[in-house]
Amino acid sequence: MLNAPGCSPPPYSWTPKTKKPFHSLIQCARFAKQHSRAQTCTKEYGIDLVLVQETFLKPSRPRSCALPGYIQLRTDRTDAPLGGTAIYYKRSLHCCPIDLPTLSNIEATGCRLAVTGHGTLVIVSIYLPSSKSLLRSDLEALLALGDSVILFGDFNSKNRKWGCGIPNTNGTNLYKLSKELKFKIIAPPTPTHYPDTLTSRPSTLDLAISKGVSLYLHCIEEIDTPALNNIPDVIQTTDEIDSSIGALTNHIQKVVKRCSREVPAAVDRRKVPADALELIRAKNAALRHAYAYPTSENRCRARALQRRVRARMLEVKNEEWSNLMEDITPSHQAFWKLTKALKSEGLELQCSHTIPPVDIHHITRVEEEIRHKTSLEPRDDLSPVSLDEVQKLVKKLNAKKAPGLDGMSNKAIKCFPITFLSLLVAIVNACLKNCYFPPVWKEAVVIGIHKPGKPRDLPASYRPISLLSGLGKINEKILKSRLSEYLFSKGLIIN
Fold this sequence. Notes:
Elements: E1 25-29, H1 31-45, E2 49-53, E3 70-75, E4 85-90, E5 95-97, E6 107-115, E7 119-127, H2 136-143, E8 149-154, H3 169-180, E9 184-186, E10 206-211, H4 226-229, H5 238-259, H6 274-292, H7 296-327, H8 335-343, H9 347-351, H10 360-373, H11 387-395, H12 410-413, H13 418-434, E11 445-450, E12 462-467, H14 470-489
Parallel strand pairs: 1-2, 7-8
Antiparallel strand pairs: 2-4, 3-4, 5-6, 6-7, 8-10, 9-10, 11-12
Helix pairs in contact: 5-13, 6-7
Domain Endonuclease/exonuclease/phosphatase: 42-225
GO molecular function: RNA-directed DNA polymerase activity
Pfam family, one: Exo_endo_phos
């Protein structure tokens, strides 16, 4: 029994024994009346998963009884008052909702949870009204949701096996089904129901049923990023935007670092002929020698090898192109891409060395139109960003692009769960509302690429390339689409 100051005694809260003070689960009833108490318990004990029965929540109020830092899943009773079940899980958990089968007497809400060294675990919040019977078909349907299933909740089942003085029919059937369906019944060490009358004895109505679970519950996968759970549900100020971005970035960095592995670099990825490789090595050695001993003879030899390498690589590319043209078929991976490139209308213009004439009259007309339209009233009510829009942008990201200063690659962003994408939507909407672009997304990693044949001790010999944050690029695309829509609608840009 978990007794916290200011929230004791709860209707039922049970934490399994673990090797460290890590509270994984809390289960309670009549949540609508215990909401403030539950907030105190979850904040003080760092509860990861909250399973609720008899929520008394109404379908017309989908956002009621939210817990800060938690994702809410709920099943409200629609045909009668009272009842209902819900699950709250931390944002840092790898968790997602699941669809449950149609049940006859049991009310339930389920989720699928990632567990270290165990795969996935199905957890279901259960409520069986006292007026209804426990059916074998309901339990079979719930236990068939996965290989590892845990059912928590109010079964309204009494049996002496878990400390009830007087058994009832549901308790007898539940114990009998545990032998037939081969599941375990886990009961807390103290009663969970205390009647109002002094003549009635306390009983244990809230139980856990597990099947195919061979682990301690402290193995539930949690990312050690407490700041992620402190992000407000509604991001409003610029300080909250910066702190939310920092928490999300730190979270992803830890996950990527933990899940990454070193891969040996491939040798000679390009299938370059052996003679060409030897020529390239000789050219590089000559350049290093000329840089160390800058005599006219060494420089001439290096330039001669550079010309030979360029000529040989041009021959290799022409040979590869000829082989591709001879061997290509409609089933080849590059067939349709090559066909589209050859048929493009701009190919002739791209190959032409002539520059199209400049239309001075058109440029003047555009400038006059812009000066005339800039006197319009500014617009600050840009349409908010939706989850679907962000999902489409993430799907189009190039996974091979290099990450920015935050080290978050596009490949990691494409693996974001719905909870992280929802958080990104909230951050971007807050940026639009505050007309704010986070400074951390403006910072870039600048890499200098050496220009061939230029001295390495001069800054002008390098071509700089800036690597920006992938999340910042998504924000830029969203902002660009809304600004373009506005500018085109007002005629500030002539199409």
